[in-house]
Amino acid sequence: MDLLVGEPSLELLTVVTSTICNLLLEFSPAKEPMLDSGAVEMLCELTKHSDPALRLNGSWALMNMAFQAEQKVKSKIIDTLGTDRIFQLLSDADERVIMKTLGLLRNLLSNTLHIENIMSEHSSEVLRAVNLVLDGPHPPEVKEQALIIISNITAGARDKDYVMEDENIIKKIREFLVVSDNKLQMGAVFVVRNLMEKGGRQKMLRESGILENLEQLLHMTPRDSQFYEE
C-alpha cells in the first residue's frame, strides 16, 4: 500500500482515507487483503499527520480494523501504533480524534480472551489511558466512552481486579453515580454491575462508598427508569 509515497494532496489523502475507513468495516470483503498489504502501518502513520482530518481518518480506520478482529490483528495494531501514540491521540486538540481513539481501545478490549491477553501485557498503559480521559476537561459523551472500556475490562478480565485496584477509577465511578448527567450515571452503573457479578467484591464496594452512592441513585430514580431495565 503506497498511499503515502510521493506528495499526494491533502484533499486526495482525505478522500482516499475516508474510503479506507469504510472498506475496513468488519463485513467488508476488502478487509483481509488490505491487512495483508500494509494497511496497519499506513494508518498508524496517518495518526501522526499534522492535518486533523487525516489523524481522524487514521484513528477511525484503525477502530474499524479492530472491530471483531482476531487477536493477531489487535496485537499488530497495538505494537505498530504504540502506547505513546495512543496517549498523544487521547490528548489531541480535535475531540473527534479522541472519540475514535477511545473507540479503537473499546474494540481492542471487546473479547474476554483478548481482554485478558491485552491487559496482562498492557494493563498499566490501558488504565493510564482511561484515567487520562476521566481526569480531562472532556464532555460527558467522551468520558462515557472511557466508562465503556472500563466496563469491558471488568466483564472480561477474570484473572485480576484491575479496576478495583485503581483508586482513581473507583473514585470517578463513585462520583459519576451521583452527578446530574445520565450518560455518566449509566456508564458508572454498568461498571458497578459488572464488578458485582464477581464474588468477594461487595465489601470492597461498600468500603469504597460506591454502594452507598448506588443506593442513593436508585432511591432518587423512578421505578420505570432505564436504570431498572437491566
TrEMBL record:
Indicate whether Cell inner membrane appears among the record's keywords: no
SUPFAM superfamilies named among the record's database cross-references:
ARM repeat (SSF48371)
Q: Does the keyword Cytoplasm apply?
A: yes
Sorted alphabetically, the Gene Ontology cellular component annotations on this record are: cytoplasm; GID complex; nucleus
Kindly give the InterPro entries that the UniProt entry links to this protein: ARM-like (IPR011989), ARM-type_fold (IPR016024), Armadillo (IPR000225), ARMC8/Vid28 (IPR038739)
Q: Which GO terms describe its biological process?
A: proteasome-mediated ubiquitin-dependent protein catabolic process
Q: Where in the cell is it found?
A: Cytoplasm; Nucleus
Question: Known SMART domains for this protein?
Answer: ARM
This protein's UniProt keywords: Cytoplasm, Nucleus, Repeat
This protein's source sits in the domain of life called Eukaryota
Q: What is this protein called?
A: Armadillo repeat-containing protein 8
> Which organism is this protein's natural source?
Aedes aegypti
Q: What is the lineage of its organism?
A: Eukaryota, Metazoa, Ecdysozoa, Arthropoda, Hexapoda
